[in-house]
Design brief:
GO terms for molecular function: protein phosphatase activator activity. This is SMEK homolog 1. Belongs to the SMEK family. This protein has about 800 residues and is of the alpha+beta class. Among the domains are: about 5-100, PH-domain like (Roll); about 140-245, no CATH class; about 565-640, no CATH class. Helices cover about 55% and strands about 10% of the residues. It has 35 helices and ten strands. The protein is elongated, with a radius of gyration of 43 Å. The chain starts with 5 loop residues before the first strand and ends with a helix.
């Protein structure tokens, strides 16, 4: 058997009962060793890869539809279809399938679609065919009952469909419809409604082709007007012939294309308006109707794309200044409908569609249309532009950048879009919201391409900030020249909120471009003027913009904020809000809380130094007191740099561990360090402060080794230690003969045998009150009659500091009792 190669598209039916295009290739049939049988093979025309390899099973039901389609099911929920370019190719492959299954190629289906029950199998053997009653007026009720009784059974449904096909029965029924209408036989018309509805549910393409033919379709719609459930018949035919008008904005020369457009419109109307909404059980019975419409649409779009004269005339008339306004509106509406029509296509078909439009010059045409005064035309052009941006934003960006080399900024396509957004006359700004979404898509780096030679992000953002950003921010800058907005009506506030939303998006997703623009143009100061707006939503948009900038924790932004005192409008809005517990109050507190929690030192100092007097009385949250504490800790570190150095060393040693063991070691530290450090520690003399920083590292590196001492060793150390050696977990108290009390930290190596100053080493003094030497550097702070922590880890919470003070006081009193 020789292979015959034909051009086809491969489709699969998805869960939504829509056909997905799997690619275009050439089909052949041949024996496949792996599948042990004759199979259908489709190889992609682009690269020769295998799109389909399907064995022709003897029991699989194959359907031939519309002369160029073959449909079948591979599994329970996996339907396939081959759409042939030529009828001859479809016929040849159909013959191969029928030959394998031993069927006559004249049939349109090779097997029963659903396995019938044993009882039906027996019935099938005893009654080979279904005999229809003669098509007479008096037997309409009998025919309606026969159709209704056949629908539940797949086998009877199949027999009924074959009988209707073979006897030309549908045309006879439609002749009876004319007789009933002439005689005003309402009962007969009700029976015909039930019969035609039942024929739809048979789900057969061959029957649809008869019913949707030019001579029959209006009569079929007529039958469906007489629903027995309605008191008065519908007037669908009147609507289709008198109300619905087919406008050829550009003459269509191909009669087949014109007929296909009429047919698709009417069938879509039947599906959407005429047929009752199918029940759950009937829904799958109309799958062939969905497929019929789908493939018709694919065919129409394909035929229009191939008609270059049609599209050339369309775009020529769109951009021609001589075209009158009514004609141009019709042309734009047609193009909008054409683009909307393409959304039902599969990705590959949609790609081809938009590439064709791009090659025909749709973007330059849109630019001309958007510059016109007619609002309806501009609105339709905006919808078309949105289809293009959603389909391929890179194509739009490339066009705009090329255009900038030839035209002024004022007439750039993207600036026209921004101007339409700013000048939207709708009180609710519906069009402006849509355009803002399109601009957001265009400036979103996530959908920008990067190649080896160029980066679209760098090029386009450089272009946008140079040529377009000043147009976007113009209404903002114009409205914020004083201490409060010069215009504060609702529509202006809505527009500025949209502009701020886009600028906030830019702050989050762009880097140096937006940073340079904000700092050079002093944008944040202007934005914060809007905090004085009477519209809360606009003031919150301004606050959100600043919060996004602070959230970046960028010192360039922070220095700009401090230099220009840009917390002042926020603090003023906070104080003006008073004690009201609302979104403004919470949002401002959250911003200051973020600064505190993230410990942004520069902003913390700036806020406390400049605004503490205004905020110190706010006590219903601890945010501002926490900021003050942060500030004081910060000042303390600046005044005692050596103390801060010791903290950082201990903190790094204590916390910077292998990530895999961090939690275990941290838990072990808090569970064991108090016991490990309780006894046997040496007292460190304040004179050891003068030692070099290098002396610290060796004992610090051994800091954690104390955990390895066994309990027996700890007891032994305890027995050898004199009274002056008793210590707290992290501090050593030593009473001298004077009135001062010194609080000094341990040497981490103090417990190690043989280390200087450890009990049992040769240099260890034995008398109370003596102070042994240590190799570690410490920072001792001395106060008169007071107690000061030597190593104060920078805890975030004020409560921890208070606990440490209490602990130190308790230890001091115990020590004094011991010494006395």
């Amino acid at each position: 058997m020789t292979d015959t190669r034909r051009r086809v598209k491969v489709y699969t039916l998805n869960e939504d009962r829509q056909w997905d295009d799997r690619g275009t290739g050439h089909v052949s049939s041949g024996y496949v060793e792996r599948l042990k049988g004759m199979s259908l093979l489709v190889r992609a025309e682009s690269d020769g890869s295998l799109l389909l390899e399907s064995k022709i099973n003897p029991n699989t039901a194959y359907q031939k539809q519309q002369d160029t389609l073959i449909v079948w099911s591979e599994a329970e929920n996996y339907d396939l279809a081959l759409s042939f370019q030529e009828k001859a190719g479809c016929d040849e492959i159909w013959e191969k399938i029928c030959q394998v299954q031993g069927k006559d190629p004249s049939v349109d289906i090779t097997q029963d679609l659903v396995d019938e029950s044993e009882e039906e199998r027996f019935d099938d053997m005893s009654s080979p065919g279904l005999e229809l009653p003669s098509c007479e007026l008096s037997r309409l009720e009998e025919i309606a009952e026969l159709v209704a009784s056949s629908l539940p059974s797949p086998l009877r449904r199949e027999k009924l469909a074959l009988a209707l096909e073979n006897e030309g029965y549908i045309k006879k029924l439609l002749e009876l419809f004319h007789v009933c209408e002439d005689l005003e036989n309402i009962e007969g018309l009700h029976h015909l409604y039930e019969i035609i509805k039942g024929i739809f549910l048979l789900n057969r393409t061959a029957l649809f082709e008869v019913m949707f033919s030019e001579e029959c379709i209006m009569d079929v719609i007529g039958c469906l007007e007489y629903d027995p459930a309605l008191s008065q018949p519908r007037k669908h035919r009147e609507f289709l012939t008198k109300t619905a008008k087919f406008k050829e904005v550009i003459p269509i020369s191909d009669p087949e294309l014109k007929q296909k457009i009429h047919q698709t419109y009417r069938v879509q109307y039947i599906q959407d308006m005429v047929l009752p909404t199918p029940s759950v059980f009937e829904e799958n019975m109309l799958s062939t109707l969905h497929s019929f419409i789908f493939f018709n649409k694919v065919e129409i779009v394909g035929m229009l794309q191939e008609d270059e004269k049609f599209l050339t005339d369309l775009f020529a008339q769109l951009t021609d200044e001589a075209t009158d306004e009514e004609k141009r509106q019709e042309l734009v509406n047609f193009l909008k409908e054409f683009c909307a029509f393409s959304q039902t296509l599969q990705p590959q078909n949609r790609d081809a569609f938009f590439k064709t439009l791009s090659n025909m010059g749709i973007l330059p045409a849109l630019e001309v249309i958007l510059g016109m005064d007619d609002t309806q035309v501009r609105s339709a052009a905006t919808d078309i532009f949105s289809y293009l941006v959603e389909y391929n934003p890179s194509m739009v960006r490339e066009f705009v950048m090329q255009e900038a080399q030839q035209n002024d900024d004022d007439i750039l396509l993207i600036n026209l879009i921004i101007e339409h957004m700013i000048c939207d006359t709708d009180p609710e700004l519906g069009g402006a919201v849509q355009l803002m979404g399109l601009l957001r898509t265009l400036v979103d780096p996530e959908n920008m391409l990067a190649t080896a030679n160029k980066t679209e992000k760098t090029e386009f953002l450089g272009f946008f900030y140079k040529h377009c950003m000043h147009v976007l921010t113009a209404p903002l800058l114009a409205n914020t020249t004083e201490d409060k907005p010069s215009k504060d009506d609702f529509q202006t506030a809505q527009l500025l909120a949209l502009v701020l939303e886009l600028l906030t998006f830019c702050v989050e997703h762009h880097t140096y471009h937006i940073k340079n623009y904000i700092i050079n143009k002093d944008i944040l100061r202007r934005v914060l003027v809007l905090m004085a707006s009477k519209h809360a939503f606009l003031a919150l948009c301004a606050l959100r913009f600043k919060r996004k900038i602070i959230g970046l924790k960028d010192e360039f932004y922070n220095r700009y904020i401090m230099k220009s005192f840009l917390f002042e409008p926020v603090v003023k809005a906070f104080l003006n809000n008073g004690s009201r517990y609302n979104l403004m109050n919470s949002a401002i507190i959250e911003m200051f809380e973020f600064i505190r929690v993230e410990d942004i030192k520069s902003l913390t100092a700036h806020v406390i130094e400049n605004y503490w007097k205004a905020l110190e009385d706010v006590d219903y949250v601890q945010t501002f007191k926490g900021l003050k504490l942060r500030f004081e800790q910060q000042r303390e570190r600046q005044d005692n740099p050596k103390l801060d150095s010791m903290r950082s060393i201990l903190r790094n040693h204590r916390y910077r561990r292998d990530a895999r063991t961090l939690e275990d070691e941290e838990e072990m530290w808090f569970n064991t360090d108090e016991d490990d450090m309780e006894d046997g520690e040496a007292v460190v003399s304040p004179s050891d402060k003068t030692k070099n920083d290098d002396d610290i590292m060796d004992p610090i590196s051994k800091f954690m080794e104390r955990k390895k001492l066994k309990e027996s060793e700890e007891k032994e150390v305890l027995l050898k230690t004199n009274l002056s050696g008793r210590q707290s977990p992290s501090f050593k108290l030593s009473l001298s003969s004077g009135t001062k009390t010194n609080l000094t930290s341990q040497s981490p190596a103090a417990n190690l045998p043989g280390s200087p100053g450890s009990p049992g080493s040769p240099g260890s003094p034995g008398s109370p009150g003596s102070v042994p030497k240590s190799t570690s550097q410490t920072a001792a702070i001395t106060t008169k009659g007071g107690l000061v922590g030597l190593v104060d880890y920078p805890d975030d919470d004020e409560d921890d500091d208070e606990d440490e003070d209490k602990e130190d006081t308790l230890l001091l009193s115990k020590k004094a009792k011991f010494e006395s």
